[in-house]
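Could you help me review a protein record that somebody else here produced? This is what I was given.
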Amino acid sequence: MEDNLKLELIPSDKMESILPLVYKLNQGTFSEALLKSRLQPMLTMDAYQCIGVYDNDILIACCGFWVLNKLYNGKHIEPDNVYVEEAYRSKGVGELMMSWLFEYAKSIDCTTAEVNCYVQNEKGKKFWEGHGFEPLGYHMIKKIDER
C-alpha cells in the first residue's frame, strides 16, 4: 500500500464529501441531490459515522458504519456505503478500512458485525466473506412510496 494514504474519521460537517463515491457505488441510480437529502437525517440519528482514506488529501475510499443494538445480535457495527476508487482496488485499502473498523468495534464493546450486500455484487460478496462474514438470511425491501 502507498505510504501517502491516510485513514481518518470524517467529521459530520464534512460528511457530504462521501457523496460522489456513494453515487459511484450505486452506479448513478440515485442523484447526488437525493443522496444528500437522505444523508442529513442519518447524521442527526447519532448512529452513522464514516471513515475515509485519503491520498494526498483526495478522498479515494469510504466506509460508512452504524453502531446499533438489536435483539438478535446485541451491540454491533454495520459497515455501509463501502467504496474504493477503481485505481486503488486490490491494493490493501479495503483491508485498511476493515482493520480500523473491527478494532474500533472492539473498543466500543460491539459483539458482532453485520453487512448488507447486493445479491448481484459477487466481488462484494467475496470481499465480505474474506473478512469473516457469513450469510445469515435475506435482506428484503418493499417500496412503499416511489420517492
About this structure: The chain has one domain: 5-116. The first helix runs from residue 19 to 25.
